[in-house]
């Protein structure tokens, strides 16, 4: 039986995790929901046991703030990107570093795995996006076209295309077989800071212009323009079924949107600081949100 999206969540904070010594820039939940990954300006990555909140690993290696982190969909690896211009691929079980990828020449702001876990995309201040083969750590392809910093990226759920969002106010859609963008999505009036695909192929993009745009990627047309945040957007996450979209920003709020109607259905508990990142649990019933001061589920 279909459930009203507003019934999915309460506004109760379940668990706080507080061990980083700098702002939390990114967080992720493992595919089996047993682990939580966080990274920070303190140059460290932490791996937590999600149910108990116990810190499993303090992962070191980066020499600058860690800007982005993510688990591979198969759950065996995680990746991180840093202001030190490197990307690292790590094993989940023992936190050993498998590859240090150094083809970027400036800060790397975003990293994401392909759905089959065989490839990794990274991008950042050098205005390029690099596709890596995970097994070998080899540079497969470099995408050029943005005219300013690339702050965010995402693979489509089918793995056939990639989206990148930039400070040039555009979102670019790329086909893996070409180094030219398939579409350039325009409309934002500020830096594009987050992008996210749904299972149905919709693409959401958030911006410093305080709006979220939901796109039809096949047509390159706008489906919804979502307004309600009163600060820069920092993170977006679709629920697994694609019905809900979570958004966070500098206004210290986590908002939930019904993507069938294009309406905000719930505002979760106010955080104590700007909310840098959010992620749905695999079940879709929990949200992990990380802020400048702490992170919580």
From TrEMBL:
One of the GO biological process terms: protein polyubiquitination
SMART domains reported in the protein's UniProt record: WD40 (SM00320)
Matching entries from InterPro entries are given as: WD40/YVTN_repeat-like_dom_sf, WD40_PAC1, WD40_repeat_CS, WD40_repeat_dom_sf, WD40_rpt, WSB_SOCS-box_domain
Q: Which PROSITE patterns match?
A: WD_REPEATS_1, WD_REPEATS_2, WD_REPEATS_REGION
Keyword terms: Repeat, Ubl conjugation pathway, WD repeat
Q: What's the short name of a Pfam family annotated to this entry?
A: WD40
**Annotated WD repeat ranges:** 17-58, 59-100, 101-142, 143-184, 185-225, 226-267
Q: Does the keyword Isomerase apply?
A: no
Q: What is this protein called?
A: WD repeat-containing 38 isoform X1
